[in-house]
Design a protein that fits this description.
The complex is a heterodimer of chains A (600) and B (567). With 600 residues, chain A is α/β, with parallel strands linked by helices. Chain A folds into two domains: 303 residues, ABC transporter type 1, transmembrane domain (ABC transporter transmembrane region fold), CATH 1.20.1560; 237 residues, P-loop containing nucleotide triphosphate hydrolases (Rossmann fold), CATH 3.40.50. Chain A is elongated. Chain B has two domains: 306 residues, ABC transporter type 1, transmembrane domain (ABC transporter transmembrane region fold); 238 residues, Rossmann fold, CATH 3.40.50.300. In chain B, 65% of the residues lie in helices and 11% in strands. Chain B contains 20 helices and twelve strands. In chain B, strand 9, helix 17 and strand 10 form a beta-alpha-beta unit. The longest helix of chain B is centred in the first third of the chain and has 50 residues. The termini of chain B are far apart. The chains are: A alpha/beta (600), B alpha/beta (567). The interface between A and B is large, with 191 and 191 residues.
């Protein structure tokens, strides 16, 4: 018998990496995942309907052509004219071609569109997730979900779905024709098929967990690659190349081992299916010969039937073929749904408050918070900041200064107590309004691999070039930008790595200046800028922050001397508050820090 | 293509075994329709059950051998594909580790990841597919053609036309498909790049309410990947059905020609139809494997690009491995970043003796970090030279050079893993005492004491669960564990509060002994106690002397001093 074995080895694509936080290793529920996957397809009913239609048409030709070949052969044996049937056959073949062609094109567009939709909505879900989610995942692993896992689904849709659909139609169609040709022969054929189905099930029960593990192993590998390649300078400076390569090899070996096991086991399905099919063929031949002797069946009918048997087994082989791919895709889909099911940042409350221009009264009341609730970082912070106050937050590293900022911008929500802005709890405001109210310069100087102009106007794409330039001037960034070969249009191809740390800070400050928010937060904004530049920025920022509430975290105490209020944090609590001179007079933590720095 | 051959060649035994069983499989497969037609011709048409049983048993035996061979072949070809993939991944990764920063920045991290994972998978799919199909399909096609010629010789001209048309179609498919798949992989790179950038800047995106912007960026990358995919798959959609049509039409021709033949040839005609069906399947397999081949070639070229990439920094032919004492001398060093028009460093000269601490101070962007990056050869000077103990760094063995030099940078990069694992980067054999002392010097002991599981606390990628100052201290401890001769502190205490910083600097001074310390800072207070201070501005040396002398002679230094301490 001919063999239709052009299966793809189950694609080995992306996966689950090493999670530090939650681990989604729930027992896999293939059925439920499949249902959800199909519900994604539902949104594309028109495309799906067309593809189904084409699948029916293309199966129809598979069903009718053997029948017509049988007629032709009958005609030849009986010496009748064949021209009619032959032209009919030619017509069927040509239309089959047309249908197959259209179906493939449609399928390509359809599956790519679906992939695009899943990918896009997955990314949009991701952008809605809280920081705690990102803080516990390796970048490589998440990237792998966005590209490899989603691709996996699409390749399955493309490779499997169409063949699955046409297989089912072919199967049903052929079954009907076979039943009309001969009921007993059909029953024999069905018995053979049943054996194949049972066997396939047994094997896939063994291989399915292996495919899931394969995806997981690959995810771990991706995570390792991303991390070590993106920090290659560290790897090199510690001469760790050999070590990371051996880490890599371990993961690589595990992956190879799992994948091999999965493939070898699933490699049994096809040959065994073939043997059973051949057996069925022989049995049917014997029975049909017997029937022919009794004159119950015509030779042409037998030859048609035998051709049908081959066609009948084909869909089963094809289903067996795509089944493994299907399982890997389901494993991929599970990982994707895992992200979609993550708890997003809390949604805005019903009737959330809008703010366009807050006054800027901020008040902390007994705020308790810890990234791990068992280990609070902030242990009861209470602080009233009247609108327009310039607050400096100082204290040893790890005292919770940045954490305080994380709560203000609602990167995280308080565990206990509350923070209010203009008298309302932060959680009562619309999230986007709230974040717009804060202009933030973060410790991390993250720039995008785009132009400098793009980076400064990030989040405010509507601003004119003049405004961008003015912001850069305020931030003291204009002078170095103008020196670059293409000025503001200079492309930061290496994501800002080509600039010095201080220059990157200046760009992020310009970004915050442009945002022109009512409340400013500067978290170590000028730690890498030389003091001369810093003074310039300071005076500029002073005019910008004039009359606005602002929070400044700084280690260089010289820069915050003229703050309206200095808050000294020690170990998650406020130790001292007051002005520079008040705190010096107090002769506590602040005074000690100040003297240490000025060396007096 | 050559690359694929080379890697398959490494597992020649597997390959040959797979091919041998593939041949057995194909040959047995060829005989099956013969017996099938015998069953029909001599059994069914004559209603001879014993003939059916006779030929049936032979056919089943052949089918059994066929299945056995198929199982063995599938085991070997799976192994071959996996081994090739494993080797490729390992070699590309290893090669990546040997490349210099310049290479990696040029290729981009996102693209490297795509190549090691996605592109290798394409090649693997192909290799596995090849041993399943590409040899068998021609064998089946050729023998099926022979069988057809033996049975129905009048079909020869038709066969020749069918083969010619199919070959042409496959060739055309290859030609049109290749650039499309190459483009598809590039679009995958871009998508990886955008998502990676989002992941590293997630805080900024949230703070600036820029989710919409990111959606836009991602959607654009995603849409262009979609379009590239559609375009590549369209090519496949065009050619597969065309080949099927060609073979199907030859069945029509066969039947047309058959009707003028002797009616006794029916069995043969049926067998020929069977063989034609087989040819059709083989051809569509071939066209399919060629499609995969096109994709695999595009991928293997991308993998090959990395494997043949020349490290931008050349290793010396006979690297020197002296016992490094730690004297660092810069002689007229000038440097500009690849592709940059402006010079970052111009004519820098200074020297540091073992046991000395040299402070380096200067405005933002003056070239301080660039300068120290030349010492462990992250980059090489364009002119002039950096010397250690009188030997140019480019002459030194890279490994010995980098084990003598340790850098603690401002941006502390930590890895997923425990704090202990991160520290062991400095010295995989570090004893608990050594770890303790490194932690003490960098004042990181209190961090370890405070976190839940001490040294075994898990850190997220980049050490996200530590504060900026904590990360800096852990990474400083890691640098100290290396027990370097030359210690570069690149503003690595910038996120520390003054008290802690003073404490760290004090213990560093006690620790440093006879090692050379290069201390970069923005703060006069940090560098003033250094033996000598190098003041640079716009990549040029402005002064190199002690604090007191610089206060007299160096305007640049004086200006910085005034800005920080006042008059």
């Amino acid at each position: 018998m001919a063999r239709q074995e052009y299966s793809t080895p189950p694609p080995m694509k992306g996966g689950h990496g090493r999670n530090i936080g939650k681990i989604h290793e729930k027992p896999k529920n293939t059925g439920a995942t499949l249902k959800r996957l199909l519900s994604v397809l539902k949104g594309n009913k028109k495309g799906l309907a067309l593809i189904l239609l084409f699948a029916v048409l293309s199966s129809a030709s598979g069903i009718f052509s053997p029948l017509i070949i049988g007629f032709v052969i009958n005609c030849i044996t009986t010496g009748n004219a064949v021209i009619l049937f032959i032209s009919l056959l030619a017509g069927i073949y040509v239309s089959t071609w047309l249908v197959n062609f259209l179906q493939s094109i449609l399928m390509a567009v359809f599956s790519q569109k679906i992939t695009y939709q899943i990918r896009t909505s997955l990314f949009e879900t991701m952008t809605g997730l809280p920081l705690s989610f990102f803080d516990t995942k390796q970048h490589g692993e998440l990237m792998s979900r966005l590209t490899n896992d989603v691709d996996n689904i699409s390749s399955t849709i493309a490779d499997s779905l169409s063949s699955l659909l046409s297989s089912i139609f072919t199967m049903v169609g052929i079954l009907i024709v076979m039943l009309r040709l001969s009921v007993p022969l059909t029953l024999v054929a069905l018995a053979g098929t049943a054996v194949i189905v049972i066997f396939t099930r047994i094997v896939t029960n063994v291989t399915r967990p292996l495919f899931v593990k394969q995806q997981k192993d690959l995810g771990a590998l991706n995570g390792q690659i991303e991390e070590t390649v993106s920090a290659i300078h560290i790897v090199k400076s510690f001469n760790r190349q050999d070590q990371v390569v051996s880490d890599f090899e371990k993961l690589n070996d595990t992956l190879t081992h799992t994948a091999l096991k999965a493939q070898v086991k699933s490699g049994f399905i096809m040959p065994v299916t073939m043997v059973i099919n051949n057996l069925t063929f022989v049995v049917i031949s014997i029975i049909s010969a017997d029937l022919a002797v009794k004159g119950l069946i015509a030779i042409g009918t037998i030859s048609s039937f035998l051709l049908y048997i081959r066609q009948f087994s084909r869909p089963f082989i094809e289903i067996a073929n795509v089944y493994n791919n299907f399982l890997t895709a389901v494993a991929g889909a599970e990982r994707i749904f895992g992200i979609i099911d993550e708890t997003p940042e809390p949604a805005d409350k019903e009737g959330a408050l809008r703010i366009t221009a807050p006054r800027g009264d901020i008040s902390f009341k007994d705020v308790v918070f810890g990234y791990n609730p068992q280990k609070p970082i902030l242990k009861g912070i209470s602080l009233d900041v009247p609108a327009g106050t310039k607050v400096a937050v100082v204290g040893p590293t790890g005292a919770g200064k940045t954490t305080l900022i994380n709560l203000l911008t609602r990167f995280y929500d308080v565990d206990g107590g509350s923070i209010t802005l203009d008298g309302h709890d932060l959680r009562d405001y619309k999230m986007s309004d709230l974040r717009r109210a804060f202009g933030v310069v973060l410790q991390d100087t993250v720039l995008f691999a785009e132009s400098i102009k793009y980076n400064i106007s990030y989040g405010h794409e509507d601003r004119s070039f003049e405004e961008i330039r003015a912001a850069a001037m305020t931030a003291g960034a204009d002078s170095f930008i103008e020196k670059l070969p293409e000025g503001y249009d200079t492309l930061l191809e290496r994501g800002g790595e080509e600039l010095s740390h201080g220059e990157r800070q200046l760009i992020t400050i310009a970004r915050a200046v442009l945002a022109d928010s009512p409340i400013m937060i500067l978290d170590e904004a000028t730690s890498s800028v030389d003091t001369l530049t810093e003074q310039k920025i300071q005076s500029a920022m002073l005019s910008v922050t004039e009359g606005r509430t602002s929070f400044i975290i700084a280690h260089r105490l010289s820069t915050i001397k003229d703050a309206d209020m200095i808050v000294v944090m020690v170990d998650g609590m406020i130790a001292e508050t007051g002005t520079h001179s008040e705190l010096l007079a107090l002769d506590g933590h602040y005074a000690k820090m100040y003297h240490a720095q000025t060396g007096r | 293509m050559k690359l694929i051959f080379r890697y398959v060649g490494k597992h020649f035994g597997l390959f040959i075994t797979a091919i041998i069983f593939l041949i057995i499989e194909s040959v047995t497969e060829i005989f099956q329709p013969t017996y099938m037609s015998m069953i029909v011709d001599e059994g069914v048409t004559r209603a001879d059950s014993s003939a059916i049983a006779h030929y049936g048993i032979i056919m089943l035996i052949i089918a059994g051998i066929d299945a056995g061979a198929a199982i063995v072949r599938s085991i070997f070809s799976a192994r071959l594909g996996q081994m090739v993939a494993k080797d490729l991944r390992r070699d590309v990764y290893k090669k990546t580790q040997s490349l210099s920063l310049e290479n990696i920045e040029r290729i981009s991290t996102a693209s490297i990841i795509t190549r090691i994972t996605n592109d290798v998978t394409q090649v693997q799919d192909f290799v596995q597919g090849v041993t399943r199909i590409i040899f068998r399909a021609p064998i089946i096609t050729v023998s099926a053609i022979v069988m057809i010629i033996l049975r129905t010789p009048w079909l020869v001209p038709t066969m020749i036309i069918v083969i010619a048309i199919s070959a042409f179609l496959i060739f055309l498919n290859l030609k049109i498909g290749y650039p499309k798949f190459a483009f598809l992989q590039k679009r995958t790179d871009r998508l990886n790049h955008v998502s990676r950038e989002y992941l590293t800047s997630v805080r900024v995106v949230k703070a600036f309410n820029a989710s919409e912007t990111e959606h836009g960026r991602f959607n654009a990358a995603s849409a262009s990947l979609r379009d590239a995919g559609i375009s590549a798959m369209r090519t496949m959609a065009l050619f597969g059905p065309l080949i099927n049509l060609t073979v199907n039409l030859s069945i029509v021709v066969l039947l047309w020609l058959a009707h003028s033949q002797d009616a006794s040839q029916i069995g043969r005609v049926m067998a020929s139809i069977n063989y034609l069906t087989q040819i059709m399947m083989s051809l569509s397999m071939i066209s399919m494997i060629f499609n995969r081949a096109v994709r695999a070639f595009a991928s293997s070229e991308r993998i090959g690009e990395i494997l043949t990439e020349e490290p931008a920094l050349k290793s010396p032919d006979t690297p020197l491995k002296p016992d490094i004492k730690g004297e660092v001398v810069f002689k007229n060093v000038s440097f500009s970043y690849p592709g940059a028009e402006m010079r970052t460093l111009t004519d820098i000269s200074f020297s540091a003796l073992p046991g000395q601490t040299i402070g380096i101070i200067g405005p933002t962007g003056s070239g301080k970090s660039t300068l120290v990056n030349l010492i462990p050869r992250f980059y090489d000077a364009d002119s002039g030279g950096v010397f250690i103990d009188g030997v140019k760094v480019t002459q030194l063995d890279e490994h010995s050079l980098r084990s003598a030099v340790s850098t603690a940078a401002q941006r502390a990069v930590l890895f997923t893993g425990t704090i202990r694992e991160n520290l062991m980067w400095g010295n995989p054999l570090a004893t608990p005492e050594e770890i303790d002392s490194a932690l003490r010097i960098s004042c990181a002991d209190e961090i370890v004491d405070r976190v839940e599981n001490g040294l075994d606390t898990l850190l997220g990628q980049g050490g996200v669960n530590l504060s900026g100052g904590q990360k800096q201290r852990v990474s400083l401890a890691r640098s100290l564990l290396k027990d370097p001769k030359i210690l570069i502190l690149d503003d690595c205490t910038s996120a520390l509060d003054a008290t802690t910083e003073a404490k760290v600097l004090r213990s560093l001074r006690e620790y440093s002994g006879d090692i050379t310390v290069l201390l970069i800072s923005q703060r006069i207070s940090t560098v003033r106690k250094a033996d000598r201070i190098l003041c640079i501005d716009e990549g040029r040396v402005q002064g190199f002397d002690t604090h007191d002398e610089l206060m007299k002679t160096c305007d640049c230094y004086k200006a910085i001093y005034r800005s920080q301490i006042g008059n």
